[in-house]
Every structure is written in structure tokens, then in C-alpha cells.
């Protein structure tokens, strides 16, 4: 398929309310495939009243000037407390390490939200310390706009071939939560698919110029489809731009979302002038919580997303708790909201019964310190695997996680040793040996 024409944004974009705020700051070229018009993003109507108030407590504590300012900029401000705190901190800019502030904003995926809040809190002169943040904001806006158009084109391309997908992060999440794709940082596009559709989707993406990054033998691919959860695809604009997922998490995490049910409960959303199908609010909340847990909640933007979803959508918390209990992730949801409460003053929904789980409070306290200290989790360390087990409230899930982790081969094992088809089951032993070696190394 032709790459299409390169078109410079013009009055067609400027006439749209969403694009106008970006168009005032800079002009941007957007790749548009097979069309003479440029998709635009419509502002979504205001969602139903939230079951959670904007803010329920004062600041839980003071950490360090840079983190404190970031948290103040990300909190809701119904009574003006956050604005007052921001204004107070900006009165003494010498007390802030602005290089460190930018570094933290990038690490936590919060450059857009931080920049927007600081520009409204400061004066019109936009002091010099704000310029590096503005540059990063503009770079992110360019990238997210391009990816948004690409997502729409891919979605439409797959739809013409009768293939259903659910984009659920990236532009869709930014639009649903913040009303503007440029107000969230992302660098790739995630699509949830049904496993039987994978061969057709790969062919369709190849027509669009994308190549699968992981190439496996037939035997390895059959095993990977059972144990893995995603394929990444490289495009002309970079590596791993597209992630096609047939599960939310790898099998060894022992969290079995029913993908067909997620498709059945999907809802319509509007992104870049195109109506798409995406995860329902309640399914999205659970997915956001397990995604944050998988990475140890080390990025504050994930807690901001959870908070924004809770505040902007009327969620049936009783039904959400029931589904979380069925999946065995009630503690993961509780820890997510406890962290959001401590850092962003988000109310913990009473129906989640988080107060009844003493372990959730202990884990949240430990994770809180790690977030503030900037501790990175090594996903192949003993401490990470211990955390993943502690997060499960059911003993059966903990046992299943450990056993599957130990015995489920991955691409690393298949690449390390080449075994003929009849000996393929021996990769379990290879996995045990390699994982044991890594765990022992991490303890030295």
C-alpha cells in the first residue's frame, strides 16, 4: 500500500477546537495514508458524574521539592490548595533543581501535564527555566499527533479486512482521560486482538509496511502463543512501534482476562474524528491497575491515569471489586488506589474494601518509598518476583505464578539453545537452569 502524501496542517486542522490549541504553538507535518483529508480529534462530551470526588485529603507529606511540585501539578484542585502550593514553590525557583525536575517529569511520563499546569500557574513571560520543559512538550505533541493518525489509519485498514481490534492505551487513553492526545506521553500503539486473527493481522500490517520483530520457528511460535501475550512490529519510523496483544499479561503472571469478554463489553470512543471500539471503563480500570503493578508502579503517570479514570467516569465499584476478586487481583487494585491516595489525594472507593487487606497497606507503603526514591525494579530479580507473589491474595495464584515462571520457556531460551522439534519439551529444563542462574546472580 502506498505511504500516501505528506500534508502540512492547515486551516482544516486549525478549525478544530482540539487541534487549535496545538496549532497556535507550532505547525506539524502529518503522514496520511490513502486520503486527501486529515483526521481531526473531536472533544468528547463530558462523562457521567464521577463516583469519586476530585480530592479528599490534604497533602500526605513532603518528599523533595521536585517530586512535591510534580505531585501538586497532577492533583485535582477543587479548593485551590494545589494552585496555592504551586504558586508558593514558584516564588522561590532557586530552591528547585530544574534539570532534575525535567528528568523526573520525563521518567514519570508527566511532561505534558506538568507543562500545562506550570504555564497556567506562572505569568505570561514564561521564564527561562520553563523553556526546556516547553521543548519536550512540543516534541511529545508532534510524536503523539503522528501516532494518533497512524493508529486511526491502521484501525481503518484492519477494519476493511473484517479484523476487529481494541486500541486501549496511547491515543485512545489520552483522549478518553484528558480530552487531548498531546496531554499524555506514549511512544507506541497497543492493540488487543483475538488470537485466531493473528495471522490475518500480521499480513495486514505487512501491507502497511510493518515487520514482526520476533521471528520464531513453528514449534516455538505454537508455544509462545500459549505462554506469551504480544508481538511487536517495526516500521519505517522506528522499532517496536506497534504492539499486538492477544492477552493482557504473559501467562506466568496467572491473571487470566477473558479477551472475548473484553471485546463483548467494548464501547465506542472518538479519536481523531474516527469512532473506534475500546475497552469499557471498568475493564480499562482493571487493565491499568495490573499494568502498573507489572512495572512496580514506578511511573507516576500510571497512577494519574487511574485517578483520572476514577474521577471522570461513573464506575460500578461493586461490580469492579467482584471482577477483581474473580481474577485474583483485588490486592493489586487496592494497592493502586492506596498509592493514588497517598500521592494524589485520590479517594479509595469504600466498596473496594482496601482497609480489610493489611498486606495491601504494607506493600503500598513500601512501594511509595521506592517511587519517591526513584528505585527501579529489575524484572528478573528475586525482589521483583517476591513482590509479584505478595500482590496476589490467593495462595493458589502465588503457587501458579512461581511454577509458571520457573517452567515456561521464552524467546530467550529458544535463542540460547537450538533444539530439534522432538526435543522441544526440554526447553523447560533450559528455562529452569537459566532462570536459576539469573536469580543467583541478582543476589550477589
Task: Write structural notes for this entry.
This protein has 444 residues and is an alpha+beta fold. The chain folds into 2 domains: 372 residues, Beta Polymerase, domain 2, CATH 3.30.460; 59 residues, no CATH class. 52% of the residues lie in helices and 9% in strands. The chain has 20 helices and 9 strands. Helix 12 crosses helix 14 and helix 15 packs across helix 16. The termini are far apart.
Q: How many strands, what sense, and barrel or not for the largest sheet? A: 5 strands, mixed
CA(first)-CA(last) distance: 53 Å
Shape: globular
Helix tally equals: 20
Total E-strand runs: 9
- What is the highest CATH level, the class of the largest domain? Alpha Beta
Mean pLDDT, to the nearest integer, reads 84
Order of SSEs: EHHEHHHHHEHEHEHEEHEEHHHHHHHHH
Question: Roughly what fraction of the amino acids lie in strands?
Answer: 5-15%
What's the number of structural domains?
2
How are strands sequenced across the largest beta sheet?
3-4-7-6-5
Name the CATH architecture of the largest domain: 2-Layer Sandwich
- Gyration radius over CA: 23 Å
CATH topology of the largest domain: Beta Polymerase, domain 2
- Can you give the helix content as a percent range? 40-55%
Q: How would you classify the helix and strand content by structural class?
A: alpha+beta
Low-pLDDT stretches are 1-51
Compose a concise summary of this entry.
This protein is 52% helix and 9% strand. The chain is an alpha+beta fold and 444 residues long.
Amino acid at each position: 500500500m502506498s505511504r500516501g502524501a505528506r500534508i502540512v496542517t492547515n486551516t482544516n486542522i486549525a478549525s478544530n477546537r482540539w487541534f487549535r490549541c496545538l496549532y497556535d504553538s507550532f505547525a506539524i507535518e502529518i503522514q496520511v495514508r490513502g486520503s486527501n483529508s486529515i483526521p481531526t480529534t473531536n472533544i468528547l462530551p463530558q462523562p457521567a458524574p464521577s463516583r469519586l470526588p476530585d480530592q479528599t485529603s490534604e497533602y500526605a507529606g513532603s518528599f523533595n521539592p521536585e517530586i512535591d511540585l510534580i505531585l501538586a501539578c497532577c492533583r485535582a484542585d477543587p479548593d485551590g490548595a494545589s494552585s496555592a502550593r504551586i504558586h508558593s514553590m514558584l516564588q522561590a525557583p532557586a530552591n528547585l533543581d530544574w534539570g532534575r525536575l525535567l528528568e523526573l517529569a520525563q521518567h514519570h511520563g508527566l511532561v505534558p501535564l506538568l507543562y500545562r499546569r506550570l504555564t497556567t500557574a506562572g505569568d505570561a513571560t514564561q521564564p527561562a527555566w520553563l523553556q526546556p520543559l516547553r521543548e519536550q512538550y512540543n516534541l511529545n505533541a508532534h510524536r503523539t499527533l503522528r501516532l494518533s493518525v497512524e493508529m486511526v489509519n491502521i484501525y481503518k485498514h484492519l477494519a476493511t479486512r473484517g479484523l476487529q481490534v481494541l486500541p486501549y492505551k496511547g491515543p485512545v487513553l489520552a483522549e478518553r482521560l484528558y480530552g487531548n492526545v498531546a496531554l499524555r506521553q506514549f511512544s507506541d500503539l497497543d492493540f488487543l486482538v483475538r488470537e485466531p486473527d493473528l495471522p490475518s493481522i500480521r499480513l495486514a500490517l505487512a501491507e502497511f509496511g510493518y515487520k514482526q520483530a520476533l521471528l520464531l520457528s513453528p514449534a516455538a511460535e505454537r508455544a509462545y502463543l500459549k505462554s506469551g501475550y504480544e508481538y511487536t512490529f517495526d516500521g519505517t519510523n522506528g522499532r517496536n512501534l506497534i504492539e499486538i496483544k492477544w492477552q493482557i499479561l504473559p501467562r506466568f503472571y496467572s491473571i487470566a482476562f477473558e479477551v472475548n469478554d473484553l471485546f463483548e463489553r467494548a464501547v465506542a470512543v472518538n479519536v481523531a474524528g474516527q469512532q473506534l471500539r475500546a475497552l469499557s471503563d471498568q475493564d480499562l480500570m482493571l487493565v491499568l491497575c495490573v499494568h502498573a503493578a507489572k512495572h512496580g508502579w514506578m511511573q507516576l503517570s500510571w497512577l494519574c491515569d487511574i485517578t483520572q479514570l476514577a474521577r471522570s467516569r461513573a464506575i460500578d465499584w461493586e461490580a469492579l471489586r467482584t471482577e477483581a476478586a474473580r481474577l485474583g487481583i483485588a490486592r493489586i487494585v487496592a494497592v493502586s488506589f492506596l498509592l493514588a491516595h497517598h500521592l494524589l489525594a485520590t479517594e479509595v472507593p469504600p466498596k473496594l474494601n482496601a482497609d480489610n487487606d493489611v498486606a495491601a497497606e504494607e506493600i503500598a507503603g513500601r512501594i511509595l518509598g521506592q517511587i519517591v526514591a526513584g528505585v527501579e525494579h529489575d524484572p528478573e530479580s528475586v525482589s521483583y518476583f517476591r513482590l509479584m507473589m505478595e500482590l496476589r491474595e490467593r495462595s493458589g495464584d502465588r503457587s501458579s505464578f512461581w511454577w509458571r515462571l520457573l517452567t515456561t520457556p521464552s524467546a530467550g531460551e529458544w535463542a540460547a539453545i537450538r533444539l530439534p522439534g522432538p526435543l522441544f519439551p526440554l526447553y523447560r529444563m533450559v528455562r529452569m537452569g537459566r532462570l536459576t542462574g539469573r536469580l543467583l546472580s541478582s543476589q550477589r
